[in-house]
Amino acid sequence: MALPWGEARAEFQLVRAHVEAEIGRGVSKRRIFEALSKKGKITMSIQTFYKCAAKALNPKPNSPSGGAIAPPPQAEQERASPTNGPLLTSQPEGKSRFQMADDIPNYD
Q: Bias regions of kind Polar residues — which residues (predicted)?
């Protein structure tokens, strides 16, 4: 029978310390699941137990909220002038790097 949303995670949190201790002793997750379900401490499926154990025992590294990957912080000097000189050989240095094609020498 399927548990209501979030209840399996709540069940696992109640036995988490026991699971961590048993895994530390070298007991397999399957045997831990069988023992806990036989005692009536958990009612979730074995697949759900494995998922909860994996999330609890192998936490993800901290990531920024929102799921977006933030660019690395840059020094103030790097932001002000990311490149030195023209980006392309056909672009002159100066305030405006872009020209109309008619103004570029040897443009075909």
A: 80-93
